[in-house]
Design goal:
Distance between the termini: 33 Å
Low-confidence stretches: none
Order of helices and strands: HHHH
Strand content: under 5%
Mean pLDDT: 79
Shape: elongated
Number of helices: 4
Length: 83
């Protein structure tokens, strides 16, 4: 999902077609994708004159946090089906 977010963020920031962005991008690993999203986020905030800090509605979860939460939800769902 983060790769899709990155494609749309780059397309918006660079005023380019999302298809053009996706075909021209190199394949990035998770860390590179997060770093690029963070960079684009900081640039956007700077252009808008916003503080560099995340706002109260910002999602500060890391990919590992999200995966852990998804696994826990899956186990809970599976346990309910078994009972």
């Amino acid at each position: 999902m983060e790769e899709i977010d990155l494609i749309f963020a780059k397309g918006y920031a660079e005023k380019r077609s999302y298809v053009s962005v996706s075909t021209s991008m190199d394949k990035l690993d998770d860390e590179q994708t997060r770093n690029e999203l963070d960079r684009l986020h900081r640039e956007y905030n700077a252009r808008k004159g916003l503080p560099d800090e995340d706002g109260p509605q910002s999602d500060n979860n890391t990919l590992a946090d999200v995966e852990q939460e998804a696994n826990a939800d899956a186990k809970t769902t599976q346990n309910r089906k078994v009972q």
